[in-house]
Specification:
binds adenosine-5'-triphosphate; alpha/beta; four-stranded antiparallel sheet; about 20% strand
Length: about 300
């Protein structure tokens, strides 16, 4: 548990790192009350959600972290309710920025980010962050038990719920094999987990939170192909019945997406399904051919 006596400037540093790495520590925002860049509009109401996943829409979005350097230019896309849209493109093209805007870490300078038709600036931040679950690239683990680290997704979750989430994220067997099972300590001063295992803990956390919208920021670090396939399967089951945005570094992850957006320098330069983009013979097709050629060479 974060001790309240940690100096606030130190929390500020952690906060900035978390925001940059897209970590899913919503509770920390409340605790720190440092989230000054966005604020609830007067009389903001919670997002009106029912038990169906909502549509997500970016409309003519322009965004800059620094007004002198525009990052996103007129970005338009829709993730239909319950579908998956994947974003690919070179490093720095603006993929993670889309995710940060959907979580409302920042407000757009022009255009709209909408959930269920509502501009997210008009509803409470708490309700947006409750509706959106992030599986980040690099999960922050606390120096605490595995149980605590998974239950962090849903404070007050029962042990049975934690186990069910761990099973769904296919990390249960691994946990059972550790010296003290769910009571094993992890993190810097405890058991070290591999990138794939950490990402599974993050999936379990998110499954426990059970948000209707999922952002999956695929790890850039190389996973072996068995681990990669396993994570993809877990992702597929986590995304079932949710509206999902996948930031993909490996194209194999995006093949089944409802739509793939290819970004370059903050613009969507191509869009379509995997088959459509391959047939178009443009940037995506050459990325696909290059990645496949690299895999053949690596084999
Ligand atoms: P990667 O694949 O490497 O994760 P990306 O496509 O996700 O890259 P973004 O992280 O969205 O790229 O960054 C888009 C641009 O915004 C980059 O030029 C980056 O330098 C810039 N940028 C990102 N975060 C900030 C920030 N907090 N302040 C200023 N500029 C930023």
């Amino acid at each position: 548990m974060i001790q309240l006596y940690i100096p606030l400037n130190f929390l500020g540093v952690i906060y900035r790192e978390i925001k940059q790495s897209l970590t899913d520590l919503n509770r920390m925002f409340t605790l720190m009350d440092q989230d000054r860049e966005v604020a609830d509009a007067p009389n903001a109401q919670p997002l009106p959600l029912n038990d169906q996943p909502p549509e997500v829409r970016f409309e003519n979005v322009q965004f800059a972290y620094d007004p002198a350097r525009p990052i996103l230019h007129d970005v338009n896309f829709t993730i239909p309710a319950g579908k998956t849209v994947a974003v690919v493109g070179p490093s720095g093209s603006g993929k993670s920025t889309l995710a940060r805007l959907l979580f409302r870490f920042y407000d757009v300078q022009a255009g709209h980010v909408r959930i269920a038709g509502q501009d997210i600036r008009d509803v409470t931040q708490t309700s947006v962050r409750r509706a959106v679950g992030i599986v980040p690239q690099d999960t922050v683990l606390f120096n605490d038990t595995v149980e605590y680290n998974i239950a962090y997704g849903q404070p007050g979750a029962s042990h049975d719920q934690v186990v069910a989430a761990a099973k769904a994220a296919r990390i249960h067997d691994f946990i059972q094999a550790t010296p003290q099972g769910y009571e094993t300590r992890v993190g810097e001063r405890g058991l070290k987990l591999s990138g794939g295992e950490k990402q599974r803990v993050a999936i379990a956390r998110t499954l426990l939170k059970n948000p209707p919208i999922l952002i999956f920021d695929e790890a850039t670090s190389a996973l072996d192909s068995a681990n990669e396939r396993a994570i993809q399967n877990e992702l597929r089951s986590a995304a079932q019945g949710k509206t999902s945005l996948v930031i993909a570094h490996r194209l194999s992850t995006v093949v089944e997406a409802h739509e793939i957006l290819v970004m370059d320098s903050g613009r969507i330069i191509e869009r379509g399904t995997h088959d459509e983009l391959l047939a178009a013979g443009g940037r995506y097709a050459s990325m696909w051919n290059m990645q496949n050629a690299a895999e053949v060479t690596d084999a």
